[in-house]
Amino acid sequence: MKASLPLVRMGTVYNSNMHRYAVTTACSTFLLLIAGALVTSNDAGLSIPDWPLAYGSLTPPMVGGIRYEFTHRVIATCIGLLTIGLAVWLWRAEKRGWMRWMGIAALGGVIAQGILGGMTVRMFQPPPVSAAHATLAQLFFSTVVAIAVFTSPWWSRELPTLEDPKSPPVRSLVVWTAVAIFLQLILGAAFRHKAFGIIPHLIGAVIVTILIFMTAGALKRRFANVPALRNCARILHILIGVQLLLGGGAYWSRIYAAQFPQPIAVMVALTVIHTVTGALVLAATLVTSLITYRLAGAGKLAGESIRTTEQVAQ
Amino acid sequence: MKITRLGIYSLALGAFALAITGCGGKKDESAEAPAPAANAPAGKTVDPATAGEVMGTVKLDGAPPKMKAISIAAEPACAKTRTTPLTSEEVVTGDGGSLANVVVYIKSGLEGYSFPAPSAPVKFTQEGCQYHPHVAGMMVAQNVDVINSDQTTHNIHPIPMENREWNESQPPGAAPIEKSFAREEVAIPVKCNVHPWMKAYMAVLPNPYFQVTDKDGKFDLKNLPPGTYTIVAWHELYKTDPQTITIGAKESKTVTFTFKATASGD
After folding, report:
1. Residues A16 and A69 both lie in one domain
2. Chain CA centroid to CA A85, Å
């Protein structure tokens, strides 16, 4: 079946170098998320009181919390440069107009993120600004991941549109799940930066878990013979399971660590892993959304390219 | 739809310029409007011939919690200077349950009096990656000199509710940082984000009738004009009720504050 399909989708030219560059930017951004989470968990956000310089220079003393904060700033600068490169490359080489604008959106995101980072320092970490900084980090990561997907060889292929006659359509399910996860990440960031308590984040966790199970279940049942969607469902199941365990562990560790006069390793490790796994859940759901929109039709669509899952599996 | 290269660069540059120039930023503490108390016209003064005093002790009822050890191995500059292990200082007790680091102060009863801030600054020192004292008392508008005696960099970051927040770095050997607070506030948490175990408090009061207890838990508020006062004892972890006391001319009274050693601190 696959051999009979044209390799390249109409209007799309696969550029392997651009795709590798986008994947590198996405992976580097994940490292930045880890570095940012380490700053928060080690209570080092204000260890460098000035911005954009650090202790009035580009080479601050690397002691205590300064190591976390300055490393975060250096990696962020590298991501900023990578994003400028990505935006310029997309603008010059990409034939799809909306992709060129995605590059501009990523560039705007990284600039805004830098401004928010500076504001957190210069305004002494007001919870709304810190939470916005943490949230925009997730949005920027998602944007770069989406660019990596859109520049991939898989996306460039001519692919069939599969029938999804059941209700609710899996397209709707996966989008609502992604929206819920994003809102949940906002609630998590707000809790982490002391904007409000844990209850909204716990309620969000229940809703997200239900939605992920509904989405992954629908994908498994309706597209059991489509490897891409089946694998998406499997990854979502694994990630939400791991994330729930990490969430419980992170919360316990925060309560346990409160008796200590300084951040302890178990708390730092669990909260950082929980935070970045949240980013992975969002990214996985986003990728699932894109794949779903690429493959699964909205209900019984008319047209020659619509196939049943059995046809695709043959 | 096309966008020019110049347009993109202008957008990026504009955003960065906004970030650098317009993102709040630290404001000069000296620019803060002085509080009414510090600016008030001269009021009544205390007559030493009739002044009395309130003295007493602060105690902790119950077993004090064991203070946690602090690991400063990550900061060799401090680790090598210390001869004793560093522990947290939330609850420091002496013989007989006396409690240290309690601010005892007159909350009300001195209305109409004016008290100029002392010219001598309060010393607040970072030594061995620890603040000395753990709780510093000062008057509104009185200078506090923050000193770094360590061979490492610190940042000093008070987090007030009523006063202006600031956060400044202090490398080894740097001159003392001179600051003051414009409004009464008991007590302002102070932390070092470079060394997250470094925590202290600054109590800012509108009159000179306050003391921070040592390990013996004793306090003595002298030269107090006759009157009826509300006296408060503040501790960072525990709470206790204020007391009302009336002092006659040349009278000396004794007050005891007792905090309960509860797990929650209430």
Report:
1. yes
2. 20
Is A115 in CB contact (< 8 Å) with chain B? Answer: yes
Work out whether strand B131-132 and strand B252-260 pair parallel, antiparallel, or are unpaired: unpaired
Chain A hits for B12, CB-CB cut-off 8 Å, are: 107, 111
The two tokens of residue A113 are 């993120």
Which of B75, B88, B196 has the CB atom closest to A263's CB atom? B196
Residues A251 and A262 reside in one and the same domain: yes
Contact B194 A55 (CB under 8 A): no
Q: State the 10-residue block means of pLDDT for chain A, 314 residues long.
A: 43 85 98 97 94 93 94 97 98 94 97 96 93 95 97 89 86 95 96 92 97 96 92 96 97 92 93 97 96 78 46 45
Distance separating alpha carbons of residues A183 and B207, to the nearest angstrom: 49
H-helix or E-strand spanning residue B256 = strand B252-260
3-state SS, A143-168, equals HHHHHHHHCCHHHHCCCCEECECCCC
Count contacts between A and B (CB, < 8 Å).
99
C-alpha torsion sign, points B21, B24, B30, B35? positive
Give contacts of A108 with chain B, Cβ < 8 Å: 11
Contact A194, A127 (CB under 8 A): yes
Are residues A206 and A124 part of one domain? no
- Whether A144 and A269 map to the same domain: the answer is no
Q: What is the ipTM of this complex?
A: 0.80
For B122-167, the pLDDT digits (tens) are: 999 999 999 999 999 999 999 999 999 999 999 999 999 999 999 9
Kind and range of the H or E run holding A111: helix A97-122
Indicate the pairing of strand B227-234 with strand B243-247: antiparallel
Which residue, among B168, B193, B195, would best test binding to A if mutated, counting the most A CBs under 10 Å from its CB?
Answer: B193
Q: Into how many domains does chain A fold?
A: 2
What DSSP string describes A215-278?
HHHHHHHHTTT-HHHHHHHHHHHHHHHHHHHHHHHHHHHHHHHTTSSS--HHHHHHHHHHHHHH
Domain hosting residue A237, numbered range: 158-314
Q: What is the pLDDT of residues B62-73, one digit of tens each?
A: 999 888 889 888
Cis peptide before B36 (omega within 30 of 0): no
Residue B202 contacts residue B158 (beta carbons within 8 Å) = yes
Which residues span the domain enclosing B43? 24-260
Q: Both A194 and A277 in a single domain?
A: yes
Of B11, B23, B155, the CB nearest to A49: B155
